[in-house]
Write a structure and sequence with these properties.
The protein has 383 residues and is an alpha/beta fold. The protein has three domains: 85 residues; 159 residues; 56 residues. 75% of the residues lie in helices and 7% in strands. The protein contains ten helices and five strands. A five-stranded mixed sheet has the order 1-2-3-4-5. A hairpin with an 8-residue loop joins strand 2 and strand 3. Helix 1 runs antiparallel to helix 2. The longest helix is centred in the N-terminal third of the chain and has 108 residues. It is elongated, with a radius of gyration of 68 Å. The C terminus is likely disordered.
Length: 383
């Protein structure tokens, strides 16, 4: 490879300067050639050494240039490798960042979806709470009025009765002979007879007991509840228990389990007074159980009513079975006679066949001998 000498290089400049000096000295030596040869020999020696030194400097410059070239190539390769490593690392980092961003986006979208569902559920629950609040307010409005509260109790009683009893076993808003109208009249057989059910809802005294803040208020509220229940028991006993028309007792329906529990827990004497007046206090739960018991009574009574018809049908069935047995015996007798006739017909057919075979063989003598040997035959045998 050809090496280009850089004139700006200090070494080259020194070499050039040396060459100029050499040339000058040579010129001076030529002029001084006439001088003593002894003086020229050391100068020539110095010039030769100086040339060798210059040549060494040139060779060093070439080696230095080659080293610089190798260093430049190594640096270029190192930079290229570093760039490739950096580019690969950047691609990996970008890939990881893309995956992380996509995963974060998916998780965020999923979280947002779940959040949206929960918000929808919360909205629905809020709507239900709002509706429930409205229903509670409506129920409070209903229960705050005696007439609407009575209608509420009647509706609840009607719902329980229609679910527990057959439709033909009760009458709603039944009018009795005394002109009184019971909320429900259950048609039980005698005994005990039809039982009247009337709905009562003493809400104000019960709420007064619940809201009492002192013993005096509690005692006053208890007196109100006791008086209200006694009045209801008396009214039901006088209006809905009629001798010869209804059962000897009636039911007072309380459409509130809380009021029913309060009576049995803290006013047992009122319950006993109802028993004495033959007025049984029931709640929605105990009323359903009582009606199921009445349903069993109605079922048993209807089975007893149908017992006569069942016995009559059993008698007719017995006659039909006897008649069938007689007809089977007659049929069996006819089959026996027919079997005997078939047997006799078979005997006559066998004899007729035997005679036909003998006639076909012209065996008249055997026929005569057979006729002589045969005793007097029955009429059926000569057929």
């Amino acid at each position: 490879m050809t090496q280009t000498i850089d004139p700006t290089n200090p070494i080259v400049q020194i070499a050039i300067a040396c060459a100029v000096v050499v040339n000058f000295l040579l010129w001076m030596g030529i002029r001084a050639s006439q001088k003593s040869a002894k003086l020229m020999e050391p100068l020539s020696y110095q010039i030769t050494a100086l040339g060798q030194r210059v040549q060494s400097l040139g060779d060093g410059q070439e080696r230095l240039a080659g080293g610089l070239h190798h260093v430049s190539e190594a640096q270029t390769q190192s930079q290229t490798s570093m760039m490739e490593v950096l580019e690969k690392r950047l691609i990996e980092v970008q890939h990881h960042m893309t995956e992380n961003l996509q995963g974060s986006a998916r998780r965020t979208a999923h979280s947002l979806g779940e959040l949206q569902q929960r918000l929808s559920a919360i909205d629905k629950a809020q709507e239900n709470i709002t509706k429930l609040s409205g229903n509670v307010l409506s129920l409070q409005d209903i229960l705050s009025n005696k007439q609407t509260r009575g209608a509420f109790g009647e509706i609840q009683l009607n719902d329980i009765v229609t679910k527990a009893l057959p439709s033909d076993s009760y009458t709603l808003q039944a009018t009795l002979s005394n002109g009184r109208r019971a909320d429900c009249l259950i048609h039980l057989p005698n005994p005990p007879g039809p039982i009247a059910v009337d709905s009562k809802f003493p809400l104000e005294p019960y709420e007064a007991i619940r809201s009492a803040s002192s013993d005096r208020e509690l005692n006053d509220a208890a007196k109100l509840l006791r008086a209200a229940i006694k009045k209801h028991i008396k009214d039901i006993s006088e209006k809905y228990i009629i001798e010869g028309e209804t059962a000897e007792g009636a039911l007072m329906f309380l459409p509130s389990e809380a009021v029913y529990a309060e009576l049995h827990a803290n006013f047992p004497e009122i319950v006993r007074e109802g028993f004495a007046a033959r007025v049984w206090i029931v709640s929605p739960t105990t009323c359903m159980a009582t009606l199921h018991t009445m349903r069993a009574i109605l079922k048993d009574a209807r089975m007893q009513e149908q017992a006569g018809a069942i016995r009559k049908e059993l008698g007719l069935l017995y006659q039909d079975v006897n008649r069938l047995g007689s007809r089977v015996e007659n049929l069996d007798r006819h089959f026996g006679m027919a079997a005997k006739d078939l047997s006799e017909i078979k005997i006559s057919a066998d004899k007729a066949g035997l005679r036909a075979r003998r006639l076909d063989a012209f065996d008249f003598e055997e026929l005569e001998h057979k006729k002589e040997d045969t005793p007097t035959s029955h009429i059926g045998d000569d057929i």
